[in-house]
Amino acid sequence: MIMRHLLPVLLAPWLLSAALANPYETTLDNGLKVIVKEDRRAPTAVHMVWYRVGSMDEVDGTSGVAHVLEHMMFKGTPTVGPGEFNKRVAAAGGRDNAFTSRDYTAYFQQIPRERLAEMMALEADRMRHLTVDPKEFAQEIKVVMEERRMRTDDDPQAKLFEQMNAVAYQAHPYRRPIIGWMNDLENMTAEDARAWYDTWYVPNNAYVVVSGDVDHQEVFALAREHYGALAARPLPARKAQVEPRQEGTRQLTTKGPAELPVLIMGYKAPILRNPATDRDPYALEILGGILDGHDAARFNRKLVREDKLAISAGVSYDSTARGPGMIYLYGSPSEGRTVAELEAALRAEIARIQQEGVSEAELKRTKAQLVASQVYKLDSVFGQAMEIGQMEAIGLSWKDVDIMIERLQQVTAADVQAAAKKYFDDDALTIGILDPQPLAGQPRRQRVPTRH
Amino acid sequence: MKRLLTAAITFLAAQTALAGVAIEHWTTTNGTRVYFSAAPALPMLDVQIDFAAGSMFDPADKAGLAALTRGILDLGAGERDETAIAEQLADLGARLGGGADTDRASISLRTLTAADKLPAALAVLTDVLRQPHFDAAILEREKARTIASLKDAMTRPDSIAGKAFWEALYPDHPYGRQATPESVATLTRDDLVDFHRRLYTAGNASIAMVGKLTRAEAEAIAEQLSLALPAGTPPDLPKPPGAARARTVALAHPASQAHIYLGLPAIERGHPDFFPLLVGNYTLGGGGFVSRLVQEVRDKRGFVYSIYSYFAPMRQTGPFQIGLQTQRKQAREAIKVVRQVVGDFVAKGPTEEELAAAKANLSGGFPLRLDSNAKLLGNIAVIGFYGLPLDYLDHYRARVEAVTADEVRAAFARHVRPGDLVTVTVAAE
Predict the structure, then answer these.
(1) ipTM summary value
(2) Mind listing the pLDDT tens digit for each residue in A28-65?
(3) N or C terminus: fewer CB in 10 A for chain A?
(4) How far apart are CA B167 and CA B184, in angstroms?
(5) Using a CB-CB distance cutoff of 8 angstroms, which residues of chain B are in contact with residue A297?
(6) Is the confidence at residue A13, as pLDDT, over 80?
(7) Chain A, chain B: beta-carbon pairs less than 8 Å apart
(8) Which of A142, A146, A296 sits opposite B87 (nearest CB)?
(9) Does residue B315 carry a pLDDT above 80?
């Protein structure tokens, strides 16, 4: 996802967190769902508005418009002038920001608890009354282009990941970068942003999440007061855009100033759709923990520490998304070692699990980490709201988190081995390589031979 | 990396304070200062041990020693090798963290407080404090990884700019000294063992704890951790940094954006001008979307995605820094605007309206700085390590509220003379 001001997560964390004691939810007459997680430890609260629309809902030619509109949401309404939103939040002692992902767009304020009503008034206002002023748009699109330069164009690893998606997906919109192609940004108009807003920013396509030192009944009442009057409107049909089955390995190389080569191997992988009955996504989550869940997990122990073949090596898999999934193996070879050697070593680790399975100790260890993380996550008021919001965004509910934790606990060594056999299939593989280029005047690191 | 760590720590420090945070303080029998805040809501403990063992203590020809010493500290200790440490912590669901910045080397543990978890996790930490192996083969491996990472960092415009910035600000002080592939290559096991022996001592440590513990339990834990260390005393500090020479460093790079830093050495931790500078900087470039730098450079001109300014008070004179990135062809124009904004602010200070807005946010938003155990721990660790008053958090809001526009102007006049600013650019045309 892309935040308006903060850094995005390039690859999502591998474990979903879970178990909530008390969320409360209600749905207003206009379709706006409100979910409240009470956490009375400190006199603060988080207010979030999530829209069920992200970059995957864009079409070719206007890639990046979801994120551009997110920027424009701070540029004023008839009653709140440009930049005034940020000023009012700041005056309340708050901090605010927003983020756009493939699957959703969300806005939040972290505030002293007593300022919640003001935040709701502000968010309700811009939910239906945004001014997309062409002059403001002309300035802000420049900011977004600078953002793209910073995040992607000048970051060889980010560029590699962008290319990975563009090659791994052909039909599904996940092939387009969230921030948009530069040329699409150059051609974007205020009307594009306006159309996006008019189509998707309605209460029946949104939900509110509040966590912190609040009473849920009071929050429900405030929500009815501020959001209740906004009119619902039918949404366009969303057509499934199923990625055709991949039938053969794809490979790409990008170049950029760097010292270390980077290898990413991405395999098409399942996504959790039915938390109570699905099996494979849970097995792959646990597999990710066994390979890369701690410093002595298999990848780091074998490839970095014992064989000194890699500077780093890891796994990334997120079983939750609106669209299709992938599991990524990645790393950088040590000086004097090659990308081809690293690829062979990553494959060997997968083969070892396919042939020999995993130990009970490894399984138990990964589950112990999972259990502890369920306590640790409760330390963050913001994190608790994020979890609720992300579950909703993918069409599940916070109520599913307990089920998911329980199902993760039930994964067996045989499940992990079976998933390893099923999904690490060369025909579903996309290989991306960053071929590092020396800066002018510096010696070139040895060439990166690959065996493809 | 150094730059980023410092920024993170500044953030914490500027974040300090909520009236009513009870910090209990005592000293262990072995001479370690302890700072504890009970947080009974969640069955977990965060503990952090800070040593004055950051990169400012690197010998002149051994830049990178502090970081490498801390990096290897927990890769084998007592009866456990590096694998056993990682596996046992994972089995317990515990996490070991920390790192080294310019001033501090830290080691932290987050663990559940259940009876079958807490003592076992503390036993691992205690061993790491008592008897780290500094295994020779692991050292060679980690040196190779560090050198590879340093080489990679020196291809990136932000890292190149950060390194040049610190070198330009601190030409004659360890704060300006950066690890290089060459300096790391010369480090030996004897160097690490000696650095560790001198600086990882009970008398040179402070312990911060937040979690579900009684005072008696906290005392017992602090005692156990402290006794794992030799007694020792704090090291002498280097001669304080002098003023930087105003100059411009322009480095080439093929990036599409120029990376630009402006700054100078400003104040140390505990400086009486801290609150006027904090409040003033909110208006200049610290207040996120509402600061003058964001309004002028981002909102009005669309030059940047990110622009900020901050003070990073450190053990000795830490920097004032402005950072931005913009298309390489408009770098000059952007720097011109930045200089105008800074010059105007230093000359005239904030308007009454701006001053009130700064106070409203810094004071009103104060509870957000302490609303998790992790945030509390960060604040308490800073108070302990830098010896700030125990009631620092209690008075934070009042001290923010008391700042006047005249004090802001006077403090900026003392510490941020625009003519003294060092400018570093990478990839500017």
Answers:
(1) 0.92
(2) 999 999 999 999 999 999 999 999 999 999 999 999 99
(3) C
(4) 17
(5) 86, 90
(6) no
(7) 195
(8) A296
(9) yes
